[in-house]
Amino acid sequence: MKLHEKIKNHYKEKYASSPIEISNEEIDFIIKHECKCDNCGKSIFEMENYPETRDDKLLCDDCYDELCSLAKECMKYVKCDTARISKPCDKMFLIIGFNRNTKDDESTITIKNNQRIDYDYVQELVVASGYTKEELIESTKEYQRLCGITWEQYFKELTQKK
Ligand SMILES: [Zn+2]
Predict the structure, then answer these.
(1) 80 within 8 A of 126, measured Cβ to Cβ
(2) Fewer Cβ atoms within 10 A, N terminus or C terminus of the chain?
(3) What is the enclosing helix (H) or strand (E) of 2?
(4) Ranges of H-type helices in 24-132
(5) What pLDDT, on the 0 to 100 scale, is given for residue 68?
(6) Distance 37 CA to ligand 1 centre (A)
(7) Which residues of the chain are under the pLDDT cut of 50?
């Protein structure tokens, strides 16, 4: 059986939740990721649930949950509306987001039929990174601390460290 068909059947028959039809793009995506979780290497054929895809990553349920709960934990230490973790390589990056509306932002103006259109969006920025959970949390705390101090204080600290 061709790999393509094998993946399609697996989606139909083996996953616990209700069967969903998988698109060809999704199948190509899975094949591109060698049919396994990018984080722990678990094969999609061994998973009991659909793999999650995010930031061009294929993740098993466990890894996805782990990153989600870690992102939630980081949210305790930093002021933001949303938080997610991207793991493009071995290192994790915390991306925080703020709910915004274009009406408050003069730099993004969308005009359609001579009328200004406003919409909600999430402004995201990368604020912390780490190879381990502890490092990431430390880095998050440090970011929030730096948000609370002035540049003068920051430079004073830097010179004191030397
Ligand atoms: Zn995994």
Answers:
(1) no
(2) C
(3) none
(4) 24-32, 61-75
(5) 93
(6) 5
(7) none
Q: For the whole model, what pTM was predicted?
A: 0.76
The per-residue pLDDT for range 106-134, each reduced to its tens digit, is 777 888 888 888 999 999 999 999 999 99
* DSSP annotation of 105: -
Q: Could you tell me the distance, in angstroms and rounded to a whole number, from the CA of residue 15 to the centre of ligand 1?
A: 16
Place of tokens 């490092």: 135
Q: So what's the pLDDT on residue 56? A: 85
Rg over CA atoms, the chain: 21
**For residue 159, how far is its CA from the centre of ligand 1 (angstroms)?**
43
Distance from Cα 41 to the centre of ligand 1, integer Å: 6
* Crossing angle between the packed helical segments 133-148 and 61-75, to the nearest 10 degrees: 30
* Largest CA-CA distance found in the chain, in angstroms, rounded: 66
* Tokens encoding 120: 């909600």
> In the numeric block, which tokens belong to residue 114?
């001579």
**Nearest in space to 89 (alpha carbons), one of 115, 56, 61:** 56
Phi, psi of 138 (to 5 degrees): -60, -45
Amino acid at 1: M
d(CA 75, ligand 1 centre) in Å = 23
